[in-house]
Amino acid sequence: MSISRTGSFRRQNDHFEPQDDADPHAQRRIRGQLEQIDYTAFASNKAVVAQVLGQADALRFQKLAVAAANARAVWVSHALAAADTAGRLTPDDLAKLTHLRGVFEELTEAYEALRRMVERGYIGYGAG
User: What pTM value is reported for the model?
Assistant: First the structure.
């Protein structure tokens, strides 16, 4: 049996943190290396994401938000129609409902991803 959950989450900090207190010099060296790794990831994201997406603006965010809102409304509308049948869904009905929820979740995640890209400085934001 598979389980699907709605909603999203963000990992706050899933990076390795050394616990060896014996050698402060080794810890500083490791932290320096990890900062270089993080900067490499930042620079790579900034170069690639900006090249693919260009700059974000209010209109792009609005279009994505409206698409997610429409997807949510369609998904819930189908769920309400299912409630009218007392939950007796055919496998096709369930597949459609699952698909609609997936569309909503993907659009919501894309919105959040775009927001994080602006927040992290991968792409610029203009009032546009």
Answer: 0.75
